[in-house]
Amino acid sequence: MERKTHYKMYKAGKNWVFAMLSTVALTGVMAMSGNTAKADAVAQSSTEQVAKVDTTGATTTQVEKATNNVNESNAAQTSVTTTTGQSSSNADATSSSQNNKQATTTSVVTSQNTLVANKDQASSIQSSVTQNSKKTETVINTADNASQKNVNGNWYLVDNNTGKNLTGFQEIKYQNKVVYYAPSNSQMQYGWQDINNNRYYFDTFDGAMTTGQKNINGNWYMFDAQGVLQTGFQRIESQNKTVYYSEDKDKLGQMQYGQKNIKGNWYNFDTYDGAMKTGFVTIPSQNKTVYYSEDKAKLGQMQYGKTKVNGKTYYFDTYDGAMKKGLTNINGNYYYFDNSGVMATNQKNINGNWYMFNDQGIMQTGFVHIPSQGKTVYYSKDKDKLGQMLYGQKNINGRWYNFDTYDGAMKTGFVYIPSQNKTVYYDENQSTLGQMKYGFQNINGKTYYFDTFDGSMKTGQKNINGNWYMFDDKGVMKVGFVTIPSQNKTVYYSEDKAKLGQMQYGKTGIKGKTYYFDTFDGAMAVGEKKIDNHMYLFDSKGIMQIGFHDLDGGKRTVYYSEAKSNYGQMLYGNQVINGKNYYFDSTTGAMRKGILVLDKANHTLSYVTNEGTVAKNMRYKIDNVEYIFNVAGVLEHSQGEANIAGNWYLFGDNNHVLIGFQTLKDGRKVYYSTDSGQMQFGQRNIDGHWYMFDTFNGAMKTGFVNIPEQNKTVYYATNGQMQYGQRNIDGHWYMFDTFNGAMKTGFVNIPEQNKTVYYAANGQMQYGKQNIDGHWYLFNTFDGAMYKGWLMSGNDWYYYNQQNGQLQTGSAVINGVGYNFDGNGKQILNYSIDYRYALPAGKGDDETAANNYIILHDVGVESGAAANARYFHDTVDTNEAYVTFVVGDGGKVYQVGRPGQVSWGAGRVANHNSPVQIELGRTYNSGQFWQDYVTYVRLARDMAGKYGIPLTLDAGGAGTRGIKSHYWVTKNIWGDHVDPYGYLSRFGVTQAKLAHDLLYGV
């Protein structure tokens, strides 16, 4: 055996000491019949091996006491000094043969209840947790005189005095260990053992009871100084940590790591050394930061809800403890926690928006007054920007407010908003502070008006609820008289509280004076004014006048009533004023002098003298003729006509003057004015109708009358009334101007009848063919309407210009096609038509077709044009097929159907939309073909131009007008024909060429 001695510094109490560590290197194996047994190993041999324990032996093992100190490592170092080379860290093993027994006596010095620090002991610890389960103390016995004995691989401890096996906890001092011998079989125990309600662990090699920290099968455990397994929270001061040993049966006593829920509280233990974590801890796997209490009362417990840490408030999720950041809803209130989780109070700018939080951290919404800044602001209640300070114009609970765009301060008073070009007012009263005001507002004793829609302060004239008001350039409402130069008027805005500021209309009493304001625009009246069919007079200040007044520069004296019943009204007719009789003109109100006047009520004549008074009860000469006036002032006269002062009157019974239409004895029908009673002459408008009376004898005229001074001829009906518009007189139609009754001549357009007619010099409407100023026109023989467009007369075509209705002669381009006409207007064809096969009347279809298509065919068989025309003619009743024209046989045209009428060549729909259908006969002769083709194209263009059909070929669908092939009809409407393209291609004519030639001609 080789001994190596090392020295290791270790700490005992407060003093550093050196102890010699003896390491024995075995260079050989003790031979014991080939078996080696140790105290803590079970030998397979049945040979007894005895180790004697004797306190009086010469060999002494010195063992340090176990202390409560824990050094820097997990396992405490213990110094052991031994005097025998056979000792080891395990129980001494005695070598023997089967026939010899040797006992080694070792003295173990220890005192009872002193715990031994075995080689696996980590350190002594101090528990900070009182265990809930009641434990039985470990009673350790010290055998003063006993020997270890291995029987059949089991170790026993035998009392040397009695020879009995010792049981229970036994301290073996020289091996510096405590072991346990089971009372049931006295054998040394190993591994986990439950003894007297305590759990212990005995080394599986030497049976030594474990104390302190111990890693067993990869799990750390803690045993107290008496070897009892510890559970729950344990404080290890030397390592400055608190750990937790499981109290669960399946992992009892094991040190715990990571997050653990212990008795309803979450804790977190370091995943490396199991140290309980406190304070803020970030858990990356759960993307959260939590807080484990640092308070002794709840040390290490995960915290939830609102929590104060070092004077700052945090909030941890009530479900998983995650520290909240940002805006957080807690029980219906919003809080803000910054990036460190600290709860905000007071004003806080978050992502460029200002928020307000009260002393409890609750986010504020709505109006908040900030005294330190002398402002009221508003924090939004809207979900999308909850709590944010608002700026600019905002509608809050249906009210508009305005907050400064820089600091959010609520604006009050008058505010100009440039972007909307308006001034508004925000209330300065506390109850409605900052609210935009609408309508009439009294501000500092002045009245303003703010638009009820946008709150804009009004200036100038404003119609409010049907009343006009006036506001100056500062918005202050005006009252009283106001002149508006731009409208050249003076108006009055009421000063009465009940209608303050309202523009006044009609008669208005102001401070004892009467004024009149126009009922339409409120303009104050000055001068003469007709009101409700009565004339009034207002001076230059608008005050109503009464009494006598000279008007028209003194040419007219009138009188305005002073009576209350008709105050201010101009008076007419006979009037008694201050006891005198006056007469005022019934039209102008002018006081009359030296004139006969008609009393309209009594139909009598009176005379006003040159003094302006009415002649009564006297004889009075008028133009040197004496007349009698009775006491009532009535002129007395016999029945019949009378010429007085150059005017004719007609008297009836009792001095009554006859008025209106009267038939005299000589048969004349005359008219006496209802205003003056005098006979009328010339043109007179009576009850809205114009009449003509002979300028010599007053006889009413009827019939045609020429009025030279007005350069017109008019017509008076038998009732004498002038006629207007169209009138049939003696079987002839005339037209009289609807404004002045002048008889019209020449061309006249009558829009309501959509026609133009012609009235000859005598005013009579003309019919039929008429040569007017060297041009021929055609007028309908029934209603005189001028004809325009193409006309087929017999087999000849004529054209009356669409613009002026003149018969066309010479050359003209019509609807894109060139035409030639002779001197009589007949069209000169550039092809000839053979009518021998034309269907007679009653054959074929007599319905007029719509002018939408010209349909092109070819005959489909190898035959010429005449043959096909004859076939159509002869079989029309049986075969029920024909077209309008057949072209062929060297450029000839054979007519079968009548142009403009339905023919039967392409199906019902196409037939009814085609005024002309053309067949092309076939040939193999190229020269003949080109003659036929040119005529085919010319005929199609000619007919398209006549019916106003576009020259485009096969364009669009069924709703597109134009020239169409039978093949197009098949594709777009109905049928199975593909002509004429198959035949045309025989001579190299493509669809594109045909389209070109139809559009531009050949």
TrEMBL record:
<dbReference type="Pfam" id="PF01510">
    <property type="entry name" value="Amidase_2"/>
</dbReference>
<keyword id="KW-0732">Signal</keyword>
<dbReference type="Pfam" id="PF01473">
    <property type="entry name" value="Choline_bind_1"/>
</dbReference>
<feature type="repeat" description="Cell wall-binding">
    <location>
        <begin position="324"/>
        <end position="343"/>
    </location>
</feature>
<feature type="region of interest" description="Disordered">
    <location>
        <begin position="66"/>
        <end position="106"/>
    </location>
</feature>
<feature type="signal peptide">
    <location>
        <begin position="1"/>
        <end position="31"/>
    </location>
</feature>
<dbReference type="InterPro" id="IPR002502">
    <property type="entry name" value="Amidase_domain"/>
</dbReference>
<protein>
    <submittedName>
        <fullName>N-acetylmuramoyl-L-alanine amidase</fullName>
    </submittedName>
</protein>
<dbReference type="InterPro" id="IPR022263">
    <property type="entry name" value="KxYKxGKxW"/>
</dbReference>
<feature type="compositionally biased region" description="Low complexity">
    <location>
        <begin position="73"/>
        <end position="100"/>
    </location>
</feature>
<dbReference type="GO" id="GO:0008745">
    <property type="term" value="F:N-acetylmuramoyl-L-alanine amidase activity"/>
</dbReference>
<keyword id="KW-0677">Repeat</keyword>
<dbReference type="Pfam" id="PF19127">
    <property type="entry name" value="Choline_bind_3"/>
</dbReference>
<feature type="repeat" description="Cell wall-binding">
    <location>
        <begin position="458"/>
        <end position="477"/>
    </location>
</feature>
<feature type="domain" description="N-acetylmuramoyl-L-alanine amidase">
    <location>
        <begin position="839"/>
        <end position="981"/>
    </location>
</feature>
<dbReference type="InterPro" id="IPR018337">
    <property type="entry name" value="Cell_wall/Cho-bd_repeat"/>
</dbReference>
<dbReference type="Pfam" id="PF19258">
    <property type="entry name" value="KxYKxGKxW_sig"/>
</dbReference>
<feature type="repeat" description="Cell wall-binding">
    <location>
        <begin position="344"/>
        <end position="363"/>
    </location>
</feature>
<dbReference type="InterPro" id="IPR036505">
    <property type="entry name" value="Amidase/PGRP_sf"/>
</dbReference>
<dbReference type="GO" id="GO:0009253">
    <property type="term" value="P:peptidoglycan catabolic process"/>
</dbReference>
<feature type="repeat" description="Cell wall-binding">
    <location>
        <begin position="210"/>
        <end position="229"/>
    </location>
</feature>
